[in-house]
Amino acid sequence: MIDLKKLAEAGSIEEALLDKVDLARLPVHIAVIMDGNGRWAKGRNLPRVEGHRAGIASVRETVETAARLELGALTLYAFSVENWKRPRYEVATLMMLLKEYLRKELATLMTNNIRFAPIGRIEGLDPSVQRELRYAEKETAGNTGLVFQIALNYGGRAEIIDTVNRIMTILHDKEMSDCVIDEDFFSNHLYTANVKDPDLLVRTSGELRVSNFLLWQIAYAEIHVTKVLWPDFRRRHLYEAIIDYQARDRRYGAVDQDDAGMFIEADEQHA
Ligand code: FPP
Q1: Which of 72, 81, 152, 253 is the most exposed place for a label (fewest CB within 10 A)?
Q2: Phi and psi for 242 in degrees, rounded to 5?
Q3: Rounded to two decimals, what is the model's pTM?
Q4: What's the 42 CA to ligand 1 centre distance in angstroms?
């Protein structure tokens, strides 16, 4: 974390924002809907894929910052089950960029003790992409720091359906058809079984949608939407999101401690 201080230029906005982040109350898991690559490119009269290419620098900086902050997990939404509807060239470029990223960044992931974990219908991706993903996953499996999940060929509904089917197979194989399934059991069979649910969901480019992302897991996540387009997203924007998160009052359906006292007194009067 002291490292992050060193990265910020003295007197910069980034430094001022970092000072406002309460390092003792960081979110454990941040999930990000990276959006706005196409608009970023359009604004520069460039082909859409140039937006994706520029977005890699944002991925790199966000992953590195999350690791230095010692967060538990970071999940980036890179390719949805619906994204196959995009032009073939765009899909091919995205897959190529992903492979390139993994090859180039593996050493950095190792240095930063990051465990890489792809989530989604990975078996539906091109075998060459699957190979790179599995290789990075295997190489980083022993790392104990940040868990970095990339959602690929991912859909929140698809994940829920896959989980139901997985559970049905398990119950069938164990001949446990009368078993009662609770929330913990269900969570433990999602793609994200090994990580805590996100505390903070960040979406870039100003859209107010969750776009079929981690539908089960974001039940209690705080949502931060920034107008910044993904290729412009930098460390300071992550700090802004965390500061916004830290200003929220997370009640999980309960009431504030102060208000709770008031209600207890009222309950006692009515007893
Ligand atoms: C959304 O922007 C972005 C995507 C569908 C892909 C995100 C991918 C990357 C940043 C690069 C590859 C990822 C990794 C992890 C190496 P959009 O194209 O929908 O933008 P628009 O809404 O402005 O058209």
Answers
A1: 253
A2: -70, -40
A3: 0.93
A4: 13
